[in-house]
Amino acid sequence: MIDGIDRALLARLQRDATQSYAALGEAVGLSAGSAHERVRKLRERGVIRRTTVDVDPAVVGRGVLAFVMLGADAWMGDAATRHALAAIPEIQEAHIIAGSASALVKIRTATTEDLQAVLRRIFSIDGVTSTQTIVVLESFFERPVNVHDQGPDGQE
């Protein structure tokens, strides 16, 4: 179970994961040691999956963003398909979805020509029968998970 202090720690870490445990603890009314222990437990329980840096994709040559729905004649969630999609470095995310498509992938490339090359690689994966590509013209916001929301049963 995640309590209010855990949620406050998570929210602060989402804004700036480089904060010291002393600063985190002070913000939520804990000692540095207690804040460290809580964060360690959140990591162990898998609540905090990783710590990362938010890099501007355009600055590092990955300014083309596309979402691609994949049609398939087989289940896209098997190990071979997962491995084949994960082997394409331009694919940042892959999701099994409900609806007319079987999977949705998020792709970042430098150019539309590079995107086309990635789509060719996707088509070479066994079971993939079609793609529908949406190229993003502009992203005006992306937000992290809101850790202050209550769970579906109204509990924190």
Question: Could you characterize the architecture of this molecule?
Answer:
Helix content is 34%, strand content 20%. With 156 residues, it is α+β, with helices and mostly antiparallel strands. A four-stranded antiparallel beta sheet has the order 2-3-1-4, with helices on one face. α1 packs across α2 (21-28). The longest helix is centred in the N-terminal third of the chain and has 13 residues, at 32-44. The N and C termini lie close together (8 Å).
Task: Record the SSE blueprint.
Layout: H1 4-15, H2 21-28, H3 32-44, E1 64-72, H4 79-86, E2 91-96, E3 103-109, H5 112-123, E4 128-136
Antiparallel strand pairs: 1-3, 1-4, 2-3
Content of β-strand: 15-25%
| CA(first)-CA(last) distance | 8 Å
- Spans of at least 5 consecutive residues whose pLDDT stays below 50 are none
Q: Write down the Rg.
A: 20 Å
Secondary structure tally: strands: 4
Largest sheet: 4 strands, antiparallel
3D shape: elongated
Please tag this protein with its features.
156 residues; alpha+beta; 5 helices; 4 strands; 20% strand
